[in-house]
Amino acid sequence: MSEFQRIVLVHYHEIGLKGHNRSTFEMRLLKNLEALLAAFPVVTIHRIAGRLCVFLREGTSLDVAVACADAIVRVPGVARVSCGYKCERDLDAMARAARDAMGEAGGFSTFKVAARRNHTDFPIGSMDMNRIVGAKLCEAFPEATVRMRDPDLVVGVEVVQNAAYVYARSVPGIGGLPVGSSGTVVGLLSSGIDSPVALWRMARRGAVCVGVHFSGRPQTSDESEYLVDDIARVLERTGCIARVYVVAFGDVQREISLCAPPSLRVILYRRLMFKVAERLAARERAGALVTGESLGQVASQTLDNIRATDAAVELPVLRPLIGTDKLEIIAQAEELGTFEISSQDAPDCCTLFMPRKPETHAKLKDVLAAEEGLPLARWVDELAASAEARDYACPAYRPPRQA
Ligand code: ATP
Ligand code: MG
After folding, report:
1. Does the C-beta of 320 come closer than 6 Å to ligand 1?
2. Can you give the pTM of this predicted structure?
3. Which ligand has the nearest atom to the CA of 348?
């Protein structure tokens, strides 16, 4: 056990953080991490000179520190996570702490020390710190050699105010902005592969996510709802999803299928989904809808059809996957941890009452003509009112007052 206090340093990209944005960003990330790390032995989290420092309780094991770091790397806004120790501002102490951190970093045969001092009242310059601490580490690890270019391991030594922070094990985070720094979006969440990835991409840009799932109930089973719940639990680990509304869409779909021209059915279903999602977005004070569409992937995802569905709502409809291809989306779903869940087959409203030949170039005037006489306003009211909300832990979320 080291004589020093264990810490996990959280680095974020400062690019794009201007002026007063910056402290809001840091506070948001700090609050998100505090909530997400509730299960770990965290004493406190502080801002220190362009980093957040998570202080771990005395006696915390390496395994627990690493598990804590692993929980942090997937949090939006985190660029890098490093495990190490806090020590006094004293070169001997720094060298001992660096030795302890290095001993826990695993396989390496080359290394370098990267020191920086935040306060010039520390008398030793960073070049000298590199040299002095580096020499002591060479004694402690005689089999390792110093290499300046592309070493296996970089040992960070940072002198900030009246303490020093030393680390070796360091892994990249997923980057982006902290959830809660870019408002709220409502994502149309199927149990398929694409929409969870689309929502996740918005979360990575700082949006609080609320999902809406249209299930085929009562015309189908509620299986897809369980898959969507599993997907939401994966997203919940990063603190980005606040709730999922489940809308039983089967009966209304059936009514549409009975009176609308078959080729336009899919567009009509989708326009109604958008309208219901927009209503829920108003409830959640969300600024946009999000879908997992990618251009040309299926019949409904043509430019003409996108135009005809977007015309159903006033909110912007964001499609973060529009220019990606399926293999890229699958790779992201695997990384996120939703791919396996999404690969399970469950009937949802997408499989229900599908026409044999859906229109790929819908004209808005035909669509509007097909909608004439349908009780759309009533359906939107009823479907939104009967939507069942399931809540997830999202530290940045403020629930709407009326719900
Ligand atoms: P996904 O893999 O996300 O289901 P997809 O390739 O199957 O997408 P579509 O079925 O055409 O494509 O759906 C396009 C988008 O519409 C989805 O990405 C999702 O945002 C939304 N959507 C489709 N079905 C549902 C549903 N049952 N509930 C909520 N949103 C849905
Ligand atoms: Mg789908």
Report:
1. no
2. 0.93
3. 1
Q: How far is the CA of 285 from the centre of ligand 2 (A)?
A: 26
Residues sharing a CB contact under 8 Å with residue 200, sequence separation 6 or more, in sequence order: 235, 238, 240, 332, 336, 338
**Spatial CA neighbour of 175 closest among 238, 85, 114, 243:** 238
Q: Output the residue whose Cα is nearest ligand 1's atom 31.
A: 190
Please list the residues that pair with 163 across neighbouring strands: 160
SS (H, E, C) 175-232: ECECCCCCCEEEEECCCCCHHHHHHHHHHHECCEEEEEEEECCCCCCCHHHHHHHHHH
Nearest ligand to residue 228 Cα: 1
Q: What is the tens place of the pLDDT at every residue in 165-177?
A: 999 999 999 999 9
20, exposed or middle or buried, with CB in 10 Å at 0-12, 13-18, 19+?
exposed
Ligand nearest to the CA of 266: 1
Per residue in 359-385, pLDDT tens? 889 999 999 999 999 999 999 999 999
Q: Is 192 touching ligand 1 by the criterion CB < 6 Å?
A: yes
* Three-state SS sequence of 93-156: HHHHHHHHHHHCCCCCCEEEEEEEECCCCCCCCHHHHHHHHHHHHHHHCCCCEECCCCCCEEEE
Q: Is the peptide bond before 400 cis (omega within 30 degrees of 0)?
A: no
Fill in the DSSP letter of residue 17: -
Ligand 1 atom closest to Cα of 212? 29
- For residue 166, the surrounding DSSP H or E stretch is strand 163-175
Q: Which of 281, 283, 254 is nearest to 269 (CA)?
A: 254
Is residue 225 lining ligand 1, measured as CB closer than 6 Å? no
201 touches ligand 1 (CB under 6 Å): no
Assign 35 to helix, strand or coil: helix
Comparing CA positions, the residue from 141, 3, 9 lying closest to residue 65 is: 9
- Which amino acid is present at 156? G
Ligand 1: distance of its center to the CA of 177 in Å? 26
